[in-house]
Amino acid sequence: MDFSFNAPLMDGSMDIIDMLEFCAEVGFDGVDITGYYFKGYPLPPERDYLYSIKRKANALGIEISGTGVRNDFTIPDKILRASEVQRVLAWGGCSCRLGALELRIFGGQEKREGYTRAQITEWMLEDTRRCVEYGKQNGVIIGLQNHNDFILT
User: Fold this and answer.
1) What is the pLDDT of residues 1-59, one digit of tens each?
2) How is residue 13 annotated by DSSP?
3) Cβ within 8 Å of residue 110, ≥6 positions away
4) Which of 25, 34, 47, 100 is deepest in the core (most CB within 10 A)?
5) Number of neighbours of residue 92 by Cβ within 10 angstroms
6) Phi/psi class of residue 148: alpha, beta or left (left: φ > 0; alpha: ψ in -120 to 50)?
7) What gap in Å lies between CA 11 and CA 48, rounded to an integer?
8) Domains plus CATH for the chain?
9) What is d(CA 52, CA 29) in angstroms, rounded to the nearest whole number?
10) What's the rounded Cα separation, in Å, for the pair 141 and 81?
11) Under 8 Å between Cβ of 64 and 101
């Protein structure tokens, strides 16, 4: 069974606790809570809030299997790309606090005018490797999500 809670979570008619309770009622084993469903995104939520989500999920018998973050490693400006890496690392910390084993990231948007695919791929790989290294050191699997973007297959 597959559900999407995108619309109610985005329009505020449901919050993460409501979603967890619904999932428990219908018998879900686990959830993946994308970062932009947390208030204040792209800033990471407060630790206490993350821990309250983790406690609620645990009390309901629901595993938080992962989370995800919007990032773009195809931005030509190295300083702006570095801020994208920092966002991923910050949400890696959120994954740890939630007890989530995986953090989904993106390669980035489509091709950039004036840059070759090889150039963009090199940036993306360099930045992704930094995130993977963080994940290795902190027990979080960094998953590269194919999302109709640069790495479209």
Assistant:
1) 667 899 999 999 999 999 999 999 999 999 999 999 999 999 999 999 999 999 999 99
2) S
3) 74, 149, 150
4) 100
5) 24
6) left
7) 24
8) 6-145 (3.20.20.150)
9) 18
10) 21
11) no
pLDDT in tens, 51-96: 999 999 999 999 999 999 999 999 999 999 999 999 999 999 999 9
- In this model, does residue 149 exceed pLDDT 80? no
Q: Tokens for 33?
A: 């809570």
Closest listed residue to residue 87, CA positions, set 99, 104, 102, 70: 70
pTM of the entire predicted model: 0.91
Cα angle for residues 31, 36, 40 (degrees, 5° grid): 125
Token pair 């932009």 is at which residue? Answer: 36
Tokens at residue 146, please?
């194919």
Contacts (Cβ under 8 Å, ≥6 apart) of 38 = 16, 44, 45, 49, 94
Q: Is-contact 31 65, C-beta < 8 A?
A: yes
The C-alpha atoms of residue 25 and residue 57 are separated, in whole angstroms, by: 12
- How many C-beta atoms surround the C-beta of residue 118 within 10 A? 7
